[in-house]
Amino acid sequence: MNKFNILLFVFILPYLLKNSIDQKNILLFLCFVSILLSHLYKQSQDKNWEWPRWACPYVGIIIGFILLVVSDDIIVKTIGLIKIISHIKKDILNYNNKYYF
Q: Are 57 and 88 in contact, with CB atoms under 8 Å apart?
């Protein structure tokens, strides 16, 4: 497990879950669930496996936009902004799993 996954599973996802419960916001909870399931599925696959070209950048950008707009918390908004930028960067530069660094 690399540094990003440790950061994601230990800090970001629990914080996002707590924030969605505190705000009683179903959209934030759905973002949490979709990020959790997509990253767990990605971890369970072969290292060379990638999401389909249409799915990864666009769904990631939409989730980032929801996090940015819906949340009242500045940390969650920052996570959403980072998610938007990283998925746009992945789409433009066509990086393979290096778009968060």
A: yes
pTM for the structure as a whole: 0.81
In whole angstroms, give the CA distance from residue 13 to residue 8. 6
Give Cα separations from 44 to 16, 37, 50, 54 (angstroms).
Answer: 22, 11, 12, 21
Closest CA to 55 of 16, 98, 96, 87: 87
Using pLDDT thresholds of 50, 70 and 90, give the confidence band for residue 99.
Answer: very low
Residue from 35, 29, 11, 37 nearest 71 by CA: 29
2-7 long-range contacts (CB < 8 A, ≥24 apart) are 4/100, 4/101, 5/39, 5/43
Q: Quickly tell me which residue has 């696959």 as its tokens.
A: 45
The Cα 83–Cα 90 span in angstroms is 10
| Residue reference for tokens 């940015």 | 68
C-alpha closest to that of 59 among 42, 46, 75: 42
